[in-house]
Specification:
Layout: H1 23-28, E1 122-127, E2 130-135, E3 139-140, E4 152-153, E5 232-237, E6 240-245, E7 249-250, E8 262-263, E9 294-295, E10 302-303, E11 306-307, E12 310-311, E13 359-364, E14 369-374, E15 390-392, E16 396-398, E17 412-416, E18 423-427, E19 437-438, E20 449-450, E21 472-473, E22 479-480, E23 495-498, E24 505-508, E25 567-571, E26 574-578, E27 583-584, E28 596-597, E29 616-619, E30 626-630, E31 634-635, E32 647-648, E33 667-668, E34 671-673, E35 676-678, E36 681-682, E37 686-687, E38 699-700, E39 719-722, E40 729-733, E41 737-738, E42 750-751, E43 770-773, E44 780-784, E45 788-789, E46 801-802, E47 821-822, E48 825-827, E49 830-832, E50 835-836, E51 840-841, E52 853-854, E53 873-876, E54 883-887, E55 891-892, E56 904-905, E57 924-925, E58 938-939, E59 943-944, E60 956-957, E61 976-979, E62 986-990, E63 994-995, E64 1007-1008, E65 1027-1028, E66 1031-1033, E67 1036-1038, E68 1041-1042, E69 1046-1047, E70 1059-1060
Antiparallel strand pairs: 1-2, 3-4, 5-6, 7-8, 9-10, 11-12, 13-14, 15-16, 17-18, 19-20, 21-22, 23-24, 25-26, 27-28, 29-30, 31-32, 33-36, 34-35, 37-38, 39-40, 41-42, 43-44, 45-46, 47-50, 48-49, 51-52, 53-54, 55-56, 57-58, 59-60, 61-62, 63-64, 65-68, 66-67, 69-70
Length: 1092
């Protein structure tokens, strides 16, 4: 769609999708009317708000919180606050939350409650819970927010960007493609690269300066700008929009739509180098020091990134080109090779030096070819007379055609003025002979010589040229030539000349550039005699060159004003504008001055700094981004413009206005809907008795005036009442009154001083076998009937006891119960018995105390005065027979005869602790049984009590590799087979290729025996004599070759090359005898040679 975004390419068809989430709704919905009876679960008991350690509310004050299952009954139901709103609360108490709101298409609640999708200057809206739209022509969505849609208007001019109408230098984006003047392809053949799928800068690469996987302004695709969220800056990770939190904030719920919603708590031991998904140091960046593995080549090289605590697979960037045809020294197609698809003649200008002094050599960027521009000014010799010099690309400086000043007269000096190229001719008398003088008018031939002219006075001889001397009239009346003026100053670089009028000399330095200022190198003042634009007095310009030859460069106020810059300063050979207040040089092009107003929403206070405040109307009229208004239901509560209207005015802390809390007293389900404070119900025991929602549930429903409900009085007859639980409860009745009908409504209705209700309800005062009274509320016994008694002292059961029983014989408490006797009787108040019980006897012969003596005691066992006493034992006579119960500690009944008691000591080695238990522990010395416990003095050598059990003695051998010398001491040595035959860990043998060279057992066989120092055995050095390439393989010493003049003649490798090869027996090689036939004085001076 043309004109819908910043340019027809890339951003022209942007679609913004606002991702919806219902994660918060699932939490908010819990706070509705839970059971229809007014109960809710509040998360305020422990003050943390985490749902842990909290207590369920009991709004209906039935003493049963909701979790106990009280059903739907209750005195205080869910209180409707009006029509249903989209806020996560059951406002109308119909047990449904946010019914009637379609989050998939509602423009006011698109994907989530209060997520507005009403894009202005655009087509589209809320579809499938996402805000999707396309900008109208001439409008651009700069901030990526569906709330204001396409908020930036860009009016395209009819001429678009064009060099012919001045729109390429007006600092405006005339064609609304997001690019201005020199940055636009309509004004510059190869503008800076733009993210649009094209090769803008003509380097053969497409969008190489933009990585859509990590560019928040082009995230996943060109022109897709990631939106700004609360307490966060936009971020792009692997092509998906994300958030990077501000310092001190964190995205605790992992939902980027609501930004960084929670305060960050620093870790006590922060480590950002681990990929764990936590911002340990609360600087807003998570795991920023994590270093991932790398992949890809050249421009596509990347590192693996950490996302939400998970290391993502390393994926190389997509190559910006299929082939590497750009000569830039970079692997553009990411194949691991650089500039491999093109032949590059050069990369730098210095690669193009053609050794021709008059050419300017450059390397064409990206094409890898050299260009050589001729500069004829470098060939100018400063003389017009020599013709016009040129710069030839092959020959270098080529001389011009000289001016021909020859007059054809032999005696004249033919001269050419190098400044003007004007010819002059001066007579030179020395060129004539025979007394003749140079006088061409009188000459008869081409020599120009003629006899001296006749004269009468000197004036007759004056030829008008003072430079050839003063002519005089000689004695023979012939003209005599003068002496020529010598004007040579001895300086080779000056042009010496003589003025013919007066003979004066001049010495003029060269002026090659013809700017009337001679070369400073020859006494002149021109600092560059090859450049006619540089001379003393010239106006200085900003180009890094000294124009006025004063040894200073770019000095003075030479730049002047530029658009929106009253002054500018020359820096690095460029006029840099000193921008006027609220203007900036945002395109980086100095010639157009300060092209951009810094009071716009796109560039506020500085270039590229947008004024886009969250949930706010903004202005940048003064160059500072200010809030002009807040979106509905949002406020600037921290008085800081930078974060916009950061505070929702629909929260309990800021309800309708900043700092206005929504905290109705004793209420639950408090909500702030469209800035108005409301609540869903009252806390248990409280009510909204005045019908005013502003002060919440102001009345306690646990008072005697409002008990369980507003105005429900708690006042009971003849009673003290209470309403501490919200229910009118009878605490106590007044004295002598009772609640006999069980109803609390009529209080204590019954007097408790009657015989029918005496002291308590239903307690009849009617005492058996007695006369009674209840005058004080207590049933009182007046007297007992004859033959009866109040033996229990309890008046309530009257005179309950007959006094003719064995327990009360003649009087209360007088028992007829002779001890241990049978056949007891009570007759006429006299108690008697028939016989003694078994096991008892009347040993004192007194009938009054019955059978007083037990015959089951140790003193009277089976009969009066018969004793029971056994040696070293405890005995019993519980059955009337003397029985051995237990032995005294340290003794036993080992012969099983109870008559002699416990006759055997249990502290002997044959009976240790028990009869027949021998004390003979294995592998010990000094066994004892002092206290009945078998023990010993010590283990035998080489044995140990490793299981800690004394009875089995020293059961473990200490000469094994598992228990070597002591229990649990393992004998395991490196590179060795260990043994423990004597209780000490020793080396039985070393592993192949290893040796115990240090003699220390604890480190085993620590030395490899395949080294030059230990070859096959400890200390066996592998250093064969007179040999090279020594090595030790599998413990055998070898070498590669003998030194010159030596040989291994004995075939023994360890002693190396032991034999010199310059002897008669071994001459040049082993066994080669030097014994030439028929010769004397043989010797072997060098290998293989002999002499005589």
């Amino acid at each position: 769609m043309p004109g819908s975004g910043p340019g027809e390419r890339g951003r022209s068809e942007m679609k913004w999708r606002i991702l919806a989430t219902c994660a918060l709704l699932s939490t908010i919905c819990i706070a509705g009317c839970a059971d229809g009876g007014g109960d809710t679960t509040t998360d305020t008991w422990d003050g943390v708000g985490d749902g842990i350690g909290d207590t369920d509310s009991d709004i209906d004050v039935d003493a049963r919180p909701d979790d106990t299952g009280d059903g739907v009954e209750g005195d205080v139901p869910c209180v409707p606050t009006g029509d249903e709103l989209c806020d996560g609360v059951d406002n109308d108490c119909d047990t449904e939350v946010d019914e009637g709101f379609d989050l998939s298409s509602d423009p006011e609640n698109c994907g989530a409650c209060n997520a507005v999708c009403r894009p202005e200057h655009a087509t589209g809206g809320c579809t499938d819970a996402s805000c999707e739209y396309e900008c109208d022509e001439g409008w651009v969505d700069v901030n990526g927010s569906g709330v204001d849609g396409c908020e930036y208007e860009c009016t395209a001019s009819a001429a678009r960007e064009s060099e012919t109408d001045g729109t390429c230098a007006d600092g405006r984006d005339n064609d609304c493609d997001g690019r201005t003047d020199a940055g636009d392809g309509d004004c510059t053949a190869c503008p800076p690269e733009f993210c649009n799928g094209l090769d803008d800068d003509c380097d053969g690469l497409t969008d190489e300066d933009f990585d859509i996987d990590f560019d928040s302004a082009n995230c996943g695709a060109c022109g897709r700008v990631c939106p700004t969220r609360d307490h966060a800056v936009p971020d792009c990770v692997l092509g998906a929009c994300a958030v990077r939190c501000e310092a001190g904030w964190t995205d605790a719920d992992g939902n980027p739509v609501n930004g960084c919603e929670a305060a960050c708590v620093p870790s006590p031991t922060p480590d950002e180098s681990i990929c764990e998904g936590h911002d340990d140091d609360c600087d807003g960046r998570t795991d920023e020091d994590f270093v991932g593995s790398q992949c890809g080549e050249g421009l596509c090289r990347r590192s693996a990134v950490c996302v939400a605590g998970v290391v993502q697979p390393c994926t190389p960037r997509t190559p910006p080109t299929a082939v590497d045809t750009t000569c830039d020294g970079i692997d553009d197609d990411c194949d691991g090779r650089t500039d491999d698809d093109v032949t590059c003649a050069c990369l730098l200008d210095t690669d193009c030096n053609d050794r021709i002094d008059c050419t300017t050599d450059t390397c064409v960027r990206g094409e890898g070819r050299c260009e050589h521009e001729p500069n004829a000014a470098l060939c100018n010799d400063g003389s017009v007379c020599t013709g016009v010099e040129v710069c030839d690309l092959v020959l270098g400086c080529v001389a011009g055609t000289p001016i021909d000043c020859s007059d054809g007269i032999g005696c004249t000096d033919d001269l050419c003025d190098p400044l003007t190229g004007v010819c002059s001719w001066s007579p030179n008398h020395t060129r004539c002979s025979g007394g003749n003088v140079c006088d061409p008018p009188r000459s008869t031939d081409s020599s120009g010589c003629a006899p001296p002219a006749t004269c009468t006075i000197d004036a007759d001889c004056n030829d008008g040229d003072a430079c050839n001397g003063l002519e005089t009239c000689g004695p023979r009346r012939l003209c005599v030539p003068g002496v020529p003026v010598n004007c040579s100053d001895g300086i080779t670089c000056t042009r010496d000349s003589c003025n013919p009028l007066d003979g004066s000399c001049s010495h003029i330095p060269p002026d090659v550039d013809l700017d009337t200022y001679p070369d400073a190198a020859c006494g002149g003042s021109d600092c560059d005699d090859r450049d006619p634009a540089r001379y003393p007095g010239q106006s200085e310009i900003c180009d890094g060159i000294d124009q006025d030859c004063d040894a200073a460069t770019d000095e003075g106020d030479i730049c002047g004003p530029l658009p929106h810059a009253a002054t500018s300063t020359c820096r690095s050979a460029q006029c840099v504008p000193n921008c006027d207040r609220n203007w900036g040089d945002c395109d980086g092009i100095f010639t157009n001055g300060c092209d951009t107003s810094l009071t716009t929403l796109a560039n506020c206070g500085a270039c590229g700094v947008p004024c886009d405040l969250p949930r706010a109307g903004e202005s940048c009229a003064t160059g500072v981004c200010r809030i002009t208004s807040c979106d509905p239901a949002w406020g600037d509560c921290n008085a800081t413009d930078a974060d916009g209207c950061e505070a929702s005015l629909t929260t309990l802390t800021n309800c309708g206005a900043c700092g206005v809390p929504c905290a109705p007293a004793h209420a639950t389900g408090a909500t702030c809907i469209t800035g108005a404070c409301a609540f869903s119900g009252c806390e248990g025991g409280w009510g909204n008795c005045n019908g005013n929602g502003a002060d919440g549930c102001e009345r306690s429903l646990r008072t005697l005036t409002d008990c369980g409900g507003c105005g429900a009085a708690c006042d009971l007859a003849n009673a003290t009442e209470s309403c501490s639980t919200g229910t009118c409860t009878l605490v106590s009745c007044n004295p002598n009154w009772g609640n006999c009908d069980g109803s609390t409504t009529n209080g204590c209705e019954t007097s408790l001083t009657t015989l029918a209700n005496c002291g308590t309800c239903g307690t009849v005062c009617d005492l058996p076998n007695a006369s009674e009274s209840c005058s004080t509320g207590v049933c009182t016994l007046l007297s007992c009937s004859t033959g009866w008694g109040n033996c229990d002292g309890n008046a309530t059961n009257g005179c309950e006891t007959a006094l003719t029983s064995l327990t009360n014989c003649g009087a209360c408490g007088t028992a007829c119960n002779p001890a241990h006797a049978t056949g007891a009787t009570c007759s006429t108040g006299s108690c008697s018995y028939a016989a003694c019980e078994s096991g008892w006897g009347n040993c004192n012969a007194n009938t009054a105390d019955g059978c007083e003596t037990s015959l089951r005691t140790l003193t009277d066992c089976g009969g009066c005065a018969i004793t029971c006493d056994l040696p070293n034992a405890s005995e019993s006579c519980s059955t009337g027979t003397c029985v051995l119960v237990s032995c005294t500690t340290g003794y036993g009944n080992c012969d099983s005869n109870p008559a002699n008691g416990c006759e055997a000591s249990l502290t002997t080695l044959t009976n240790c602790g028990a009869c027949g238990t021998a004390c003979s522990p294995a592998n010990v010395t000094g066994p004892t049984c002092a206290t009945g416990t078998c023990s010993y003095a010590s283990c035998n050598s080489g044995w140990g009590n490793c299981d800690g059990i004394t009875s089995n003695g020293c059961e473990t051998s200490l000469r094994t590799t598992t228990d070597c010398g002591s229990c649990g001491t393992s004998c395991s040595l490196p590179n060795a087979t260990a043994t423990c035959s004597t209780g000490s860990c020793a080396i039985q043998s070393c592993n192949s290729g290893w040796g115990n060279c240090d003699g220390i057992t604890s480190n085993g066989c620590e030395t490899q025996l395949n080294t030059l120092t230990n070859c096959g055995a400890c200390g066996a050095a592998c250093s064969p004599a007179h040999a090279t390439g020594a090595s030790c393989s599998t413990g055998t010493c070898t070498f590669t070759a003998c030194n010159s003049g030596w040989g291994n003649c004995d075939g023994n490798t360890p002693n190396g090359c032991e034999t010199q090869l310059n002897t008669l027996a071994n001459c040049g090689a082993c066994g080669i005898v030097c014994n030439p036939a028929n010769a004397t004085g043989a010797s072997c001076a060098t290998a293989g040679l002999f002499s005589e």
